Fold this protein.
Amino acid sequence: MMMKMLEAGGLPIMTDGERSADIDNPKGYFEYERVKDLENETDKSYFREGRGKAVKVISFLIKDLPDDNDYRVIFMRRDLEEVLTSQDKMIQRLGSSDTSVDAETMKEAYRNDIVRTRLLCRKRPNFELVEIHYHASIDDPADTARQVNGFLGGRLDEAAMRAAVDAALYRNRTSR
């Protein structure tokens, strides 16, 4: 959702189009496949191409971003139960039956990752972080657009960002 908002607002997106929209994410993935191997990459110079663009990076891999860039991290937060439910549904649709890790272990790993990401972004001088909560973005996309636009320098089209939010895609809700 955030990548769609950024694109609609006028921010260029670094994507390779490898992963197309599907039933799990009908608006697309906005990913750059090479980023998924960031932890093992030796040549990360391709990130220079991404300067001034939005690049989707899972929080676990933020630690592996090269130091020769400045980063504004929009840390999308979502209820961990919703994340696990969404992942389980996608795994089932893909025909996988991997149940090697129980839900409580996964939740603890996610909680640890959140703390690690926050600390890393505070510690590294070339990182700035804003946390955006998924459900709040659905409830009030105008506020999210305002926050993100301000964080990124105020040059984005907030009306277009707001319009990019599709509440119908919020399918794995927990009760709040």
